[in-house]
Amino acid sequence: MGREWKEGVLSIGAEVERHLDVLEAEGDYLQSTGKIWEAIDRMSRDLSRDEKSAIIRRWKIHQSIVKDAWDEFKEILEDSQNGDDDGGWDELGLGDTSLSEEERSRAEAIKPLLSLHQLLHASIPRYFDEAEDHLQALLEESSKFVDCYDEVVSSLHPEQDEEEINSALGDIEKISRRMASLVGNVSIDKWTTKYDMEREKWSDRKFNMRSLGVAIE
């Protein structure tokens, strides 16, 4: 709630400063006075009832950002499927912007992990009542989660760097596991089991690719 208060007060303060400028210039002070009251009404209307409501509101914003990143990831895969249609980029000398076959295979292998991370983040608000003592900690982890999720998706664009991908996946896994531990629900435990299975598949896939690379050499 502190953040909402801060944003509301700053908005009112900005309108007051503009009002003072209008008074100094002997302008239309009635209009600027009205804007101050509008800012006050907006703050009163938008303030959450309690800490839980404020955290739910912030969480929904985070969910929206994560969904945008997920949609971006799906577009990366779709663009690679339509690789023959370059949209005129080659004519502009900008080269191929789609994934190589190996990059596409890697992205497809990571897709279940990304999906599970998004599912966990979207599900956690259901258990806020059970995790009442950890709401602020969960919100802090959610803020980190948003950044890490975006980093994973960014690493899956063409010209991938496998070390960068593995690092980003490791970072978001740590955050997801911390969030899961703060909630501690049976359903979340099922998520952990499913995630471990998919992570094992990803590890096997990396090992097989390395073995193939050694054999080719």
TrEMBL record:
Pfam families: GCIP_N (PF13324). One of its GO terms (cellular component) is nucleus. Residues 24-79 form the Cyclin-D1-binding protein 1-like N-terminal domain. It comes from the Eukaryota. Residues 80-101 are annotated as: Disordered. This is Cyclin-D1-binding protein 1-like N-terminal domain-containing protein. It comes from Cryptococcus deuterogattii Ram5.
